[in-house]
Amino acid sequence: MNKKYTKFIIGGSVLLAIIILIIVYHNVTKIDKNSSSTTGNTPGNLLNGGSFCESGGKIYFSNPYDNNKLYSMDSDCSNIKCLTDDDVSYINCAGRYIYYVKNNAKASNTNSLLRGELYGVVRCALNGGRYTTLHTGYSTDLALSGNTLIFNGVLNSKNVTYAINVNGKNEEVLLEDDIANSSVYKGHIYYSKPSSSGTADHSVYSMRVSDGSSISYLNGNTYMASVVNNVLYYIDLDNNYALTSVNLSNNTKKVLTTDKVVLYNVYNDVIYYQEETYDHSFNRMNKDGSNQIKIYDGDVTSISCTSKYTFFKMFGSDTLYRVETTGDTAIQKFFVTAD
Q1: Is 300 exposed, middle or buried (0-12, 13-18, 19+ CB in 10 A)?
Q2: Average confidence (pLDDT) over 47-69
Q3: Which of 63, 192, 252, 307 could be disulfide-bonded to 71 (CB atoms 3.0-4.6 Å)?
Q4: pLDDT tens digits for 199-250?
Q5: What torsion, rounded to 10 degrees, do the Cα atoms 273, 277, 279, 285 define?
Q6: What residues form the membrane-spanning segments (predicted)?
Q7: C-alpha to C-alpha distance for 174 and 163, rounded to whole angstroms
Q8: pTM score > 0.85 for this model?
């Protein structure tokens, strides 16, 4: 074999190796496009702060025992791992990526303080790698609609609603107001107009994610509106905080419970809710309002539903508890220990 042919073989092999490396790098780092109907978490979980998100047999969650760092575990609560050091909330997941809000202003998060990474919207891989900050600055109420992330932030000392592509491009202000972005349905966000808007109007509005146009959808004095499977749910402030549903197909309205509801989470065929009528209790019922069962006497916060368990905290405590989402109603303390 002559030297010229040998050099040709070596050069060709090197070039082929470079091409393969480029292809592998591109496939690993590219941001897959989501379908237009993709959402990142359930409306109920996001209404409760987005501290838990289930996807692909995994639960991604904010660990209150470890400065609210991002952890993952299997849906049966096994195989627990720490993914990132951020103080996280409003967790969303789609495809190969996790999206969340970070708030590292606490003095306990020394590494983030030294790096100056206090606030923002983050994208990372399912194992916590390929960490990218998509937006810097105070952020909250993150949700995913297709390939667009919607979140609240501050611009020129004013609260606004932002949109940004999942690849970190095309950031824009959708609305010059901050709204609850938790309920994404068919490319729209359904929300109760907030008190911060400076008006007495608390009707349910629908905002189109593609252009930020917003219209009044249901007149009323409402709170915590969400849409799940073509049914609108909201707390009716003019009817003693009764949890109410409206079927969007035929506009049939139904009062699901006359209890004074202050927090709820709709998950598949059940609804978990906190009531403050007389005795303050945490309850579960079917989505049509039937079969109401008391889970706990007292106040709870952060109701987060997954396929097997529903997680929550007692008011004023960071201790996690869980109950079977559709099964036995016995509550258990849930302690997190990384494997």
Answers
A1: buried
A2: 98
A3: 63
A4: 678 999 999 999 999 999 999 999 999 999 999 999 999 999 999 999 999 9
A5: -30
A6: 7-28
A7: 6
A8: yes
What is the spatial order of strands in the sheet that 52-55 belongs to?
52-55, 58-63, 69-74, 81-84
Torsion of CA 244, 256, 268, 81, to 10 degrees: 80
3-state per-residue secondary structure call for 265-278:
EEECCEEEEEECCC
Taking the C-alpha atoms of residue 264 and residue 91, their distance in angstroms, rounded to an integer, is: 18
6 bridge partner residues: none
- CATH class of the domain defined by 35-182: mainly beta
What is the residue whose two structure tokens read 């952060």?
302
At residue 17, what is the residue type?
A
d(C-alpha 46, C-alpha 250), whole Å: 27
Residue 204: phi and psi, rounded to 5, are -85, 130
- Which helix (H) or strand (E) segment is 196 a member of? none
